[in-house]
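Q: What does the predicted 3D structure of Casein kinase 1-like protein 6-like 1 look like?
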Amino acid sequence: MDLFDLYLTETCEEVRKGTKRGASPSSSSSPKMMKLVLAGEKLQAFDVPVPTTSPVPTTSTSPVPTTSHTHTREKSAPDVKALPQILWENLTYHKKIRSGMRGKTAHYRLTLESGETRNVVVKKLHNGTPLTEEATILQELDGAGGVPLLYGVTTKPYALVMALCPGITFTEAVMRLNRDQIKYLHDEVLSAITQFHAAGYSHQDLHGDNVIINTSTSPMECHIVDVGEAVKFSGVAEFDQKMKNKDSAFLRWLNM
């Protein structure tokens, strides 16, 4: 038994005797005291001096930033005022095009300052959020891959105004055309996707209903639309190639 154990045993015995005589254990305000509980007694607590050591300093470390090849768009959306502005009084409704869970599109006629009119698509979100990111992407793509040209944005309510791409969806075209026409169409769509990628973007939501085919022209025109989910390439070759493959995956079922 070392000196500390001996001292602790004697101290406990002294306190036990004092407790039986009705004495109350002395308390101490010293930080070097700790509470002990006597087993078999009435949870009687008393203070016993114990050796202390300086607390080990703890250091907080900032989390190590991790890198990922997954590309994400900037958090802050572009300012709507930085985009071309369109007045609602210059837009004339023609007909509905499509309505979905997030928003709707309609065919309008836009009157330019020169007095000329253009067929345009006006796209609005149900929650009223301005489509500034999609407008900026259209502006930067500038028609690459046949994407509609941007005319501008409106306010009160917010909407995106872009050129109307006439035609039918790629899915509908495949159902109507013969095999030779489909083969030609396959190559045209692949060419449009390549142009889209060359402009520095991956579509990320490309399928048969997001490609419009104008079958009334010769040769047929191809337009990639609905670019709201598009992202810029990361610069990492392996990851960028995966994004490119994803964009063209819907063409594989044609077996061309």
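A (community wiki): The structure tokens above were generated from the sequence. The chain has five helices and twelve strands. The longest strand covers residues 91-99.
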